[in-house]
Model the fold of this input.
Amino acid sequence: MPSSTAAILETIRPLFGDELDAVEREISHLLENDVALIPEVAKHVISSGGKRMRPILTLLSSRLSGYVGDRQIRLAVCVEFIHTATLLHDDVVDKSDLRRGAKTANNLWGNPASILVGDFLLSRAFQLMVGDGSLKVLKLLSDTSAIISEGEVLQLAHENNIENDLPTYLKIISAKTAQLFAAACQIGALLAERTEYEKPLFDFGHNLGLAFQIADDALDYSARREKLGKSIGGDFRESKATLPVILAWHKSDAEEKKFWIRTIREKNQWQGDLSRAVAIMEKYQVLKEAIDYAEKYVEKARKSMEIFTVSPEKEALLELLDFSVSREY
Amino acid sequence: MPSSTAAILETIRPLFGDELDAVEREISHLLENDVALIPEVAKHVISSGGKRMRPILTLLSSRLSGYVGDRQIRLAVCVEFIHTATLLHDDVVDKSDLRRGAKTANNLWGNPASILVGDFLLSRAFQLMVGDGSLKVLKLLSDTSAIISEGEVLQLAHENNIENDLPTYLKIISAKTAQLFAAACQIGALLAERTEYEKPLFDFGHNLGLAFQIADDALDYSARREKLGKSIGGDFRESKATLPVILAWHKSDAEEKKFWIRTIREKNQWQGDLSRAVAIMEKYQVLKEAIDYAEKYVEKARKSMEIFTVSPEKEALLELLDFSVSREY
Done:
């Protein structure tokens, strides 16, 4: 099995390549605007190395559900716009300077531009849905958008809380990540008007989203990944109480607990702290434990696909699922 | 004619008082949330002295159009949520500490909470519209939301530009203020399914919004208002190139131009600068000129109401219109 993102996407790309090209063209077209700052900022974020996971889920789920038509293109754009609006606001909230190795929009254009262009993209997403005209899709995505922002506020309230329990962590990532993955998949069933597929596809996306986010949070502390030359420690530098920290905290001795209190709760970090965090995590095998959690959601997601007979689209979705936790960590 | 906001609203309140109470109850109900920060922040902004101009416009326009039912309540809430989301983000963008004499949400809870609760309110507004189920209302308000954010970005690009021309200024206030006033009014025609009222009500709201914003921008430099003990100069301290500054700039001599360049373009303000700004504006009678512009839009708005026969609702809307520029300045 190919192990890199690029490789896996290349393998399954023939299934949706033309449609994804149409999505990209539509994005460019929809961002044209007399107010030059809008396309400038939006294109920077949208083109900076995102894998288009969510639009791909919409394209594949639509075909898997048997939908024939072209509404999936614009709705895939919608999903990507909602995601991008979230990224823009997240980076302001987290005061992030870098995302995927590139300078963030707030770093380049300042907070005001990031906030306002994020608002614009969210509004544009709703305009697209209204243009599509399905109240079911509108309900799904307006609920999703409200849940995402609730999750973001919940995260803000718990951000540097090392004593977060697992249920709180899961509630946060369920709202801020898994819900949009779930909606991206469920759109397929709505377009095909196959109500019996709605729940399985929603569940598939939701569990995939949970697995994806848990793996993402684990990867951020992966020593192996660091050896491969990839940047790690972004969450640590922002003192985020993600799953690896939560798991490590509960196993740590008194001395180690002091370390977490200083670096995460009090946000007071020194040279060498990231290495120490990684070392504590290795000592307690925390990343393996996190990936075990992720694998449980992978299994749940796989189960919800049983309703579908074998097809290239089903295989592709299952490959994306495997990929979500098998990334090099 | 009563001259204060409170007085005018009391005069016309019997017409929509019960409905406005229902709007307030609905707002409280819809803001209940397990994530405690959401109602905390949202209620602070929503209850801090707003006059509910936009919801009142929706209530009155619905009755004026002959609509009988209760959909106007939730849609009035929608309009207020969109407005409140904008206020929350505006105050972050402008780094404002005070709004209507009270501490802003970003001042009390920080930028992240203001950004994320703003996102939540906008999403909630869309959920409400979807619950209402009219694609026409959804189109009107999703277009409005996109236009507002475009206007905000445009304003950002031109903010401290004292050489802004009148058309640019009008384009900005048209998008960021007048569009929502227009939509709030047009909803009435949509609910009553009276297509012939759509344009007149949209135009009424739009011109009222322009007049209201121009008067608001003028009031911010009103010496008379200052003598009444009201706070002025908020826009000046934020170095905003609003209409009074634009008008003053074009009449100023070389020395005065230097003053505007320093205080507005270069945002470098000293003690006594506000008094000097007000003095230059008095010298060139700039506020009178601004109010003359506003009066033109008042006339346009009044004209678009001619389609309606006499009714208490029509009279109330016209009183609100007069009030929009006759506030003590």
In short: Chain B touches chain A through 41 residues (CB under 8 Å).
